[in-house]
Amino acid sequence: MANDNRKLGAGEVVPLALQHVVAMVVGCVTVPTILGTAGGIGSDDLVIMMQASLLCAAIAILIHAFGKFGVGCKLPVIIGSGFAFIPTLTSIVKTDGMSGVLGAQLIGALVGILVGLSFKKIRFLFPPIVTASVVLTVGISLYGTAVKYMAGGEKSPIFGTPKAWIVALITLGSVLFFSQFCKGILKVSATLLGLIIGYVVAACLGMVDFTRVANAAVVALPKPFHFGLSFSVGGIVSMIIIFVINSIQDIGQFEATTAGAFNRKATDKELSGGIIGNNISSAIGAILGGTPNATCGQNVGIVVTTNVTDRIVFVVSALIIMVTALIPKLAEIFLTIPLPVLGGATITVFGSIAMTGVRMLSGAGLTPRNLSIAGLSVALAVGLSRTPGAFESCPEVIRMIFGGSEIVIVALIAIVLNLILPKEKQS
Length: 427
What we know:
By secondary structure, the chain is mainly alpha-helical. The protein has helices spanning 10-39, 43-66, 86-122, 128-150, 162-181, 184-188, 190-204, 211-215, 233-262, 268-288, 297-306, 311-325, 328-335, 339-364, 368-385, 396-402, 406-420; strands at residues 79-81, 293-295. The protein has 17 helices and 2 strands. Strands 1-2 form a two-stranded antiparallel sheet. It is globular and about 60 Å long. GO terms for molecular function: xanthine transmembrane transporter activity. It is found in: Cell membrane.
């Protein structure tokens, strides 16, 4: 990794590393929590999921920092749990449980590695209009989850109560304040700071229980195959599609990093190694019980803003994350976060994902052809996913692929439309 030729002092490295950690940690808390809630997973297993997600993120960061043998991009990037996977993960866990999720994740990650090895040959399938449609749908599909959390969480005693909404809105207001009216570390850490403020308010209202934290172990090692692995055709197909789509999104993050930090395009070697590195860590996550990984866009923003690309900063970030992953008490603290706080803190993140899709759509060009592809694929994805029983009389594989995740539907339809609709003539 190159930098701006300024040697960082020891007193600068840790704060810069912590800045990256606080920017990525919310995802490693949110994704397992949403998945666990959807699958009815107990608190003990949620702790294992969070620890594994953090550990695999740390492994991925180190893979990229050193980049050996074509694995890793050797770029200044931070890796964390991928929000884009949530709709597909929750769809699979409801039918196949955690073992089905992790089995599909393992196969999907292996296919993702193949994408990294041969991405130039299949890149034509994912032009900007397809990726934009997918990203837009990811954001839209997460809105319902965030709002349910803001209301207290379904089946919760506080669901829909004024207490839940007060906490959620205070959290959301805090996030907006730090993100819009502050600068530097406060702006970058807006989501985390809003979550902390909401957490304090919730604790004052008696919504936080520390009993499990007191009883949790201080140190615990990973538990390979704790959830087991099982394989269903529908789940595997769904996960393969989202892993391929995520690889394309990762390419965008790597390109943004090299353009913003080094004023150049990413090389084929960097892109290929980056995709392979992320998918190797996701495959390890399937074994340990962690969620799939993706390149964190907020951390790309930090790199571009600070222009600090020293490898030591990212190595220290990974070590901090790794230590956190091995301490169950910290994971238990994360699990005491009330759902209204989590919803209020993350709805802006989900909103930004959708708006990123809109920006990408605009960048692809608002031509009649592109509007047809995006409009039809998004409409069918959102509509079908919200119409239970639409494929009731179809084969099980069709029901699993098209009756669950919006992301799978939008990706398939957008890809097919892009291939069959006539190209517009260049004027």
